[in-house]
Amino acid sequence: MDAARHAGATLPDDVVRTAIQWRLKLDSAEDKALVNARIQRWCQQQPNNALAWQRLGGLQQEFDGYAAALPRRDITIPVLQRAGADLQRRKALKLLMLAVAVGGPGSWLIAQQPGIAADYAAGTGDRRRVTLADGTQLLLNTRSAVDVRFSATERLLVLREGEVQINSTADPSSLRASPLRVQCQHGLCETLGARFVLRDQGDHSELLVQQGEIEVTSRSGQRLVASHGEHYALRHQRIDPIAAQQIDPTAWTRGMLVVNDIRLGDFVQELARYRSGIIGCDPAVAGLRLSGVFQLDQPEALLDNLSRTLPVSIVSRSRFWVRVVARV
Amino acid sequence: MPPIEPNSSINVAALYSEHHGWLFAWLRRKLGCSEQAADMAQDTFVRVLVRDEPVSNHAPKAFLSTIARGLVIDHWRRSALEKAYLDALAQIPEQFYPSAEEHHQTLQTLEQIAALLDCLKAKVRTAFLLYQLGGMTHAQIAKQLGVSSRTVERHVADALFHCYQLRYREN
């Protein structure tokens, strides 16, 4: 097929378009023999027509091959849709990185600022510590990524995914010219010096202030000042305080997972962030509750531990597929 | 691999020593990982080596970054697919999990399909996938996407045209 692919002339677009119309007509035709005869006549009119039709046939064969090789299309087609959207987002990220809040609340403008861009990322199960040029310290949790955009007039960080602890209190004596801004997909955090944890949860982001004060702005323009010890959920439309914490939001910075009265299903989901492969929880046991302190650097041991404290067993097909089920 | 002619327009060793530095730094910024960046910088030069045509001395930076950008996009595509596939598998009962072998095969097929449909708009891609792989009719797709049958037909035709161009109008 490869030889045919590159052989021959470039055909005029309208010939190719017409061949495609024939293809679609044939697919939906009741009387395929009739349409086929008409296509044959069209092909005989011009060598170009015949070549276009032949090439479309080659393309069709390629797709038939894919279709035959692709199991579970109920799953794999949505995977292609999601991954395609994901890739396009990534390609567009360069533009997103330039989106900076300028001026009043809620004015999300594109500001083209020359600056040095750097990306930092931590892989699954990793914690990565980074010290930036201005002394700000980042601690990236598992599967997290941060863009750094510093220039002479501005200090901007963008949380792309995952979770980061930011410590910009290193030198309180030197008043910096510009505040540190941290953008996540749901809003913007601004501070002159604070230590805080920001986590992207998909449909919202969570901010916990460990020290200092942070001015938070949602994308819709709601604004408030979060101080020491406060914990907020940022959504596009609003900012809400978080009262009950089932997962200690800062324990990971010490390498721990600390949970309090959490559903097993939620616990397993949290644990999944730290392991490669997939881990599922049987709905029959997802409602069980647990509390405890766990070491994050040994997720496998942690899993084994579960079966000792709860009436569950761990079934693993391979290292990549693990499921928590009811013990029989 | 063809030997590098001494009088060919550019020597790959010279290209490497002159350009590896910035290429690695550029890739590291893109990927956020030194190890991956080092691998991919290496891959970029391997691509140059295994090309049939000699490398022209004209704009080597643009030439190298075009290759490297392609590799980065391949990498992003693969990791987006892997992640989406694992997420999808997590939703189904364990007895339906594929073997490691099937898993690998499926991802490869997904990669080939995705590479073909990369630049399409989301709706065009979806319509085409549902038609070509899902075996749905224009009317069924129209209902699912909330658009007219004519629009679906146009999307499918556009996608086919795009695939045709990729396959038959390269270079």
Key phrases:
heterodimer, A: 328 residues, alpha+beta, 13-stranded mixed sheet, three-stranded mixed sheet, 20 strands, 35% strand, extended, disordered N terminus, B: 171 residues, mainly alpha, Arc Repressor Mutant, subunit A, 7 helices
Characterise the protein shown here.
The complex is a heterodimer of chains A (328) and B (171). Chain A has 328 residues and is an alpha+beta fold. Chain A has eight helices and 20 strands. In chain A, the strands form four sheets. In chain A, strands 3, 4, 5, 6, 7, 8, 9, 10, 11, 12, 13, 14 and 15 form a 13-stranded mixed sheet that branches. A three-stranded mixed sheet of chain A has the order 17-20-19. In chain A, a hairpin with a 4-residue loop joins strand 11 (194-200) and strand 12 (205-218). In chain A, helix 2 packs antiparallel against helix 3 and helix 2 (13-28) packs across helix 4 (47-69). Chain A is extended. The model of chain A is unreliable at 1-6 and 94-118 (pLDDT under 50). With 171 residues, chain B is mostly helical. Chain B has two domains: 1-98, no CATH class; 119-171, Arc Repressor Mutant, subunit A, CATH 1.10.10. Mean pLDDT of chain B is 84; it is low at 1-8. At the A-B interface, helix 2, helix 4, helix 5, strand 3 and strand 17 of A face helix 1, helix 3, helix 4, helix 5 and helix 7 of B.
